[in-house]
Design a protein that fits this description.
- Helix content is 96%, strand content 0%.
- By secondary structure, the chain is mainly alpha-helical.
- The longest helix is centred in the middle third of the chain and has 45 residues.
- The N and C termini lie far apart (71 Å).
Length: 47
């Protein structure tokens, strides 16, 4: 009886992990984009 209860509870946890991974990817992407913009601006100003 306890095994079926554990299986459904694992599915919501997996969904929560996916949401955290999406947020992490968004943050990493935003940080990378910011770095690219800063480096590009510095290169343009130096030339």
């Amino acid at each position: 009886m306890s095994a079926p209860k554990k299986k459904p509870s694992a599915l919501p946890r997996a969904k929560q992990k996916e949401e955290v991974n999406k947020k992490a990817l968004i943050w990493i992407g935003a940080a990378f984009a910011a770095i690219v913009v800063v480096v590009g601006t510095l290169l343009i100003l130096n030339v």
